[in-house]
Amino acid sequence: MANALRFLIVDDFSTMRRIVRNLLKESGFSDADEAEDGVAALNKLRASKFDFVVTDINMPNMNGFQLLTEIKQDDKLKHLPVLMVTAEARKEDIVAAAQGGAAGYIVKPFTKATLEEKVNLIIKKLDL
């Protein structure tokens, strides 16, 4: 059941994490945890079970692309869909995200409908 999926929301701004968490909750996904950067996210991903990662790109310590690379190189994590979220709508970032194995890409600011549509599309595509 899709609603039972556990999300990890990664963003260096707590307000943005809260917004994403609330939007997911409104979309029926109430199980979510948060991490403030890629390093914290990797620690949580390796310590606990998650089904889906929503990550910002621009963060200190380890950015979203580095996190994506780490996830895709880890046999225990590489199955996880990673949805990239960023304020940058640069074509090269979108291409890099796709080449790195990201399941999707959203540009901030976005609406509940956009997030919900992207998440549901990925869930359907990956049969989660």
From TrEMBL:
Keyword set, alphabetical order: Phosphoprotein
Highest taxon of the lineage: Bacteria
Keyword Phosphoprotein: yes
Record domain Response regulatory: where: 6-123
Modified residues (4-aspartylphosphate): 56
Matching InterPro entries: Bact_response_regulator (IPR050595), CheY-like_superfamily (IPR011006), Sig_transdc_resp-reg_receiver (IPR001789)
UniProt KW Signal keyword: no
UniProt-recorded name of the protein: Chemotaxis response regulator CheY
Organism: Comamonas guangdongensis
Gene of this entry: cheY
